[in-house]
Amino acid sequence: MFISALTVAALSSTAFALNNGVGKLPAMGYDTFNAFAGNYNATDVLDQALAMEKCGLAAAGYNIIILDDYYALKKRNASGYMVADPVKFPDGLPALSEQVNKLGFKLAAYGDNGYETCGGYPGSYGNEERDLKVLSSDDLIADGETDIPADNITEQNMLGRYTRMSNAIEAVAQEIGVTFELSLCEWGWQQPWVWGRRLSQAWRIDGDIKPYWSAIAAIIDQVSFQYWASGLYGHNDMDILEVGNTGQGTPPGNMTYEETKSHFTAWALMKSPLIIGTDVANATQQTIDILGNRDLIKINQDPNVGESISPFRWGVNPDFVSNSTHPAEYWSGNSSYGVVFMILNSQDRPAQMAFNLTESWAIRAGQQYHVYDMWQHKMTGLAVRNMTFELPAHGVAALLLTDAGPEPAYLNGSCAVYYQCAWPNGTYISN
Ligand SMILES: *[C@@H]1O[C@H](CO)[C@@H](O)[C@H](O)[C@H]1NC(C)=O
Ligand SMILES: *[C@@H]1O[C@H](CO)[C@@H](O)[C@H](O)[C@H]1NC(C)=O
Ligand SMILES: *[C@@H]1O[C@H](CO)[C@@H](O)[C@H](O)[C@H]1NC(C)=O
Ligand SMILES: *[C@@H]1O[C@H](CO)[C@@H](O)[C@H](O)[C@H]1NC(C)=O
Ligand SMILES: *[C@@H]1O[C@H](CO)[C@@H](O)[C@H](O)[C@H]1NC(C)=O
Ligand SMILES: *[C@@H]1O[C@H](CO)[C@@H](O)[C@H](O)[C@H]1NC(C)=O
Ligand SMILES: *[C@@H]1O[C@H](CO)[C@@H](O)[C@H](O)[C@H]1NC(C)=O
Ligand SMILES: *[C@@H]1O[C@H](CO)[C@@H](O)[C@H](O)[C@H]1NC(C)=O
Ligand SMILES: *[C@@H]1O[C@H](CO)[C@@H](O)[C@H](O)[C@H]1NC(C)=O
Ligand SMILES: *[C@@H]1O[C@H](CO)[C@@H](O)[C@H](O)[C@H]1NC(C)=O
Ligand SMILES: *[C@@H]1O[C@H](CO)[C@@H](O)[C@H](O)[C@H]1NC(C)=O
C-alpha cells in the first residue's frame, strides 16, 4: 500500500500560502505510518509525543506530529465533512491537538488529492478548501493519499491536482489567515523535483521506504540525480525514517547499526525532512542517539545554506551511472559551519575510502583543514590534501572541515589534478 502524501502543518500566521515563511527548513517531526500503519489511536499518538518530549527528541528539534492515513471515518458526514474516527479519537482531534501542543508539538495530518486515500478513507478532491478549514480549526492539517482518479473524470494530472490543493491553501490563507505547510507525494512518478517547489514545501522523490538497506541505498541513488532540487523553502522528501525499526514490522526490519547511521546521515545532509517513524515509546537509547544527532541536525536545519550535499565521485561505479545497490559514495557540500563531507561504503564488506580534498568544489586548494567527526562528536585531526580511512560494510563518515590556514610549505609544487595547476611560465605542474 502506498501512503504518506501531503503532510501539512497548520501554522498560525497572517501571511499567505506559499512563499509565506513556512517550510524554509526541512520539517522535523513524527509520522504514524512506519510504526503503526492503520493501527493507532489518540493514546498511541499522545504516547509518542510524551516519549519524544521525555527522551530529548523534542528539544533536538522534532516538533510536528503527523497523523498518517486512517484517522477518519470512511464516509464524509451528510454535510460533506470528514469526521475523525470517534473510536480511535473519542475526544476528537482538537482535544488531541491541545494535548500535543502542550508538549511542544503541532498536530498535522495526511490527506489525498484524489477521491480516496490509500487506505480507502475520504480524499480531498473537490473538497480541498472545506477540508483545510476543518483542519485549521483543529490546528492541524490533513494530508491525503493518492488514490488516483481516472483522468477522464478529473482531467488533471498530478500537477493539476496538487495545484488545486495549493490554490486552496492560498485561498484559505487569505480568507482565515492560516498558513499550511504542504508536503506532497506522488512517489517521484512525474518528476516532482521539477515542479514541486511551485506548489509545496516538500515532495517525495521515490516509492515507499522499507527498513532494509537495499531500500535506503536505492533512495540515496535517486538523490544523486535530484540533489539540486533541494534548497530553502523546498525539499526533496526521502520519506519517513526507518531508524529504530530493526526487528520491528513484518517482515522485520534488518538494518545494522552502521546502516542506520548511514540512513540518518544521508537524510540529514541531503536536506530531507526528518520524520521519525518508529515507536519512540519503545525505542532503544541507540535509536534515540541516532535520531538526536545534533551535529547532523544542525546541518539539516542550517538557516543560510539550504542546498543538499552532492556527489563528487561515484566510487564503485562510473560517475553519473545509476546503480541502486551501489549509489554514489563520495559527497560534499557547503554549510554555515564548514565544508561537509559524507563518505559512504556501499559495499557489503569493509572498504578503504580515499579522496583528495580538492575533489570537493567547496574546498580551497592550498589550505589545510580541521576535521570534525559528526558521529564521534569531536575534532579528529588535520586534513592535508587528502583523507584515507576504512569504513565498515554500508558504513558512513560524516565530516565537517574548517579552514586551518595554508598547507605546509614543503608540499608546494604538488597538485592533485595536474591539468589544473601550472607554473608561472605556463607549464603544467605534473608532480
Ligand atoms: C488505544 O488502543 C490501546 C490498545 O492498543 C488501548 O489500550 C487504549 O485504551 C486505546 N485508546 C483509545 C483512546 O481508544
Ligand atoms: C458534519 O461535520 C461538520 C464539521 O464537523 C459539522 O459542522 C456538521 O454539522 C456535520 N454535519 C452533520 C450532518 O452531521
Ligand atoms: C472513463 O474511463 C473509464 C475507463 O476507461 C471508462 O470506464 C469510463 O466510462 C470513462 N468515463 C467517461 C465519463 O468517459
Ligand atoms: C533484510 O530483509 C529483507 C526483507 O525481508 C530481505 O529481502 C533481505 O534479504 C534482508 N537482508 C539481510 C541482509 O538479511
Ligand atoms: C519493544 O521492542 C522490543 C525489542 O525490539 C520488542 O520485542 C517489543 O515487541 C516491543 N514492544 C512494543 C510494545 O512494541
Ligand atoms: C551495480 O554495481 C555492481 C558493482 O559494480 C554491479 O555488479 C551491478 O551489476 C550494478 N547493477 C546495476 C543495476 O547496474
Ligand atoms: C558557505 O556558506 C556560508 C554561509 O552562507 C558562506 O558564507 C560561504 O561563503 C559559503 N562557502 C562556499 C564555498 O560557498
Ligand atoms: C596525500 O597527501 C600527502 C600530503 O599530505 C601526500 O604525501 C600523499 O602522497 C597523498 N596521498 C595520496 C594517495 O594522494
Ligand atoms: C612555494 O611556497 C612558497 C611559500 O611557502 C612560495 O613563496 C613559493 O612561490 C611556492 N612555490 C611554488 C612553485 O608554488
Ligand atoms: C589525488 O591527488 C593525487 C596527487 O596528489 C593524484 O595523483 C590523484 O590522481 C588524485 N586523485 C583524484 C581522484 O583526484
Ligand atoms: C617552467 O617552470 C618550471 C618550474 O620552475 C620548470 O621546471 C620548467 O622547466 C619551466 N618550463 C619552461 C618551458 O620553461
From TrEMBL:
Q: Record's superkingdom?
A: Eukaryota
CDD domains reported in the protein's UniProt record: GH27 (cd14792)
Is Signal found in the keyword set?
yes
Q: Which Gene3D superfamilies match?
A: Aldolase class I (3.20.20.70), Golgi alpha-mannosidase II (2.60.40.1180)
Q: Where is the Alpha galactosidase C-terminal domain?
A: 326-401
Membrane-spanning residues where?
none
Question: A biological process (GO) annotation for this entry?
Answer: carbohydrate metabolic process
- Signal sequence, start to end: 1-17
Does the record bear Lyase in its keywords?
no
Q: Which residues form a coiled coil?
A: none
Which Pfam families did the record assign?
Answer: Melibiase_2 (PF16499), Melibiase_C (PF17801)
The GO terms this record gives for MF are: alpha-galactosidase activity
**Catalysis: reaction(s):** Hydrolysis of terminal, non-reducing alpha-D-galactose residues in alpha-D-galactosides, including galactose oligosaccharides, galactomannans and galactolipids
Which key words are in the record? Answer: Disulfide bond, Glycosidase, Hydrolase, Signal
Entry EC no(s)? 3.2.1.22
Family that this chain belongs to: Belongs to the glycosyl hydrolase 27 family.
Q: What is this protein called?
A: Alpha-galactosidase
